[in-house]
């Protein structure tokens, strides 16, 4: 079992953003509705705290969209991130996820995506 976890981590280490984003879509789609809601709540809590900490003063009129893909271990701890978007706020929010514990996923590794977009 340990060998399988180590192998999965090695594969993830070589994966690029597009690959892990696809894994996040797969893993998120596999969740039961209650688990999906728990995942969203935990990511919103940590991501929201990141926005509070990272937002410059005064706040800009616009923010560029970004996505942070999170790799969770069996306890729900963020062990790695990949980011699409390079604005300062995106980098700061990404860094805020490091080492945080979110929800306990049904399998490990588990991939989830925190997406920020401004709706017109």
TrEMBL record:
It comes from the Bacteria. This is Uncharacterized protein. It comes from Stenotrophomonas maltophilia.
